[in-house]
Each structure stands twice: as structure tokens, then as C-alpha cells.
Design brief:
0% strand, single chain, mainly alpha, 82 residues
């Protein structure tokens, strides 16, 4: 299951296994380039490559779609065998 989720999120299973929320928050909070004048955020974000929430929603929607397709197939088989 981990491999399927990792594939859907386009990450390695090790990335999920080694996920550290504290480190992720630290990376996001410190993704600021203080060398610019004012309070400009660094738009060259090299650390965050995926939006995890969007990927989870995408995976969930894909799983629901697959479930609905499977139900339709089963209903068709049941009608054919009745």
C-alpha cells in the first residue's frame, strides 16, 4: 500500500517513511531570502516540490473513481448471471 501511495504522490516510499513534520515546517519557515530588501519571500522555492494535501485529495478522488468503476462492473456481472 505504501508503494501505491508513494507512486501516486510521485515520491519514494522512503520519503514517506522518513517524513518529519518538524523538519518540513522548519524548511518552510526558513525558506526566506533575507538578502532582499524589505520582507520579500524567496520565490525560488527549491525545498518544497509537492503539495501533499493536493496529492492526497487527488489520490482519494482517483480511488473513489476506481471504486465506482468496480461497483459498476460487479453490478453488470450480477445482472448477467441472474
Amino acid at each position: 500500500m505504501l508503494e501505491k501511495v508513494a507512486k501516486a504522490l510521485k515520491v519514494t516510499p522512503e520519503t514517506i517513511k522518513n517524513f518529519n513534520e518538524e523538519a518540513t515546517i522548519y524548511n518552510v519557515q526558513n525558506n526566506y531570502d533575507g538578502s532582499n530588501s524589505g520582507a520579500t519571500l524567496n520565490t525560488n522555492n527549491y525545498h518544497c516540490t509537492i503539495n501533499t494535501f493536493d496529492k492526497i485529495v487527488e489520490l482519494y478522488e482517483r480511488m473513489l473513481k476506481d471504486k465506482e468503476a468496480m461497483i459498476e462492473k460487479l453490478e453488470t456481472l450480477l445482472k448477467a448471471n441472474s
